[in-house]
């Protein structure tokens, strides 16, 4: 399991959150674990670590 961290960002116009990679069936791979002191932690199974380049911030 690989744990990554990031800061969510929200203002009056935009909200940015993590977009986890998808498996072959289109299901999200990984889980957001917790937010501590403004930093959000997410886990991604080791099998999917090669897909870390697919993890990106999503603009809502």
Brief overview, please?
The chain has strands at 2-6, 9-10, 15-19, 31-36, 39-44, 56-59. With 60 residues, it is mostly beta strands. The protein is flat and about 35 Å long.
Characterization of this structure:
It is a single chain. With 60 residues, this protein is mainly beta. It has one domain (2-59). 0% of the residues lie in helices and 47% in strands. It is built from no helices and six strands. It has strands at residues 2-6, 9-10, 15-19, 31-36, 39-44, 56-59. The chain has a three-stranded antiparallel β-sheet, with no helix packed on it. Strands 2-3-6 form a three-stranded antiparallel β-sheet, with no helix packed on it.
Q: Could you list some keywords that capture this structure?
A:
60 residues, mainly beta, 3-stranded antiparallel sheet, 0% helix
Helix tally equals 0
Parts with pLDDT < 50 across at least 5 consecutive residues: none
Ends apart, CA distance between termini? 27 Å
| Total domain count | 1
Spatial extent as radius of gyration:
12 Å
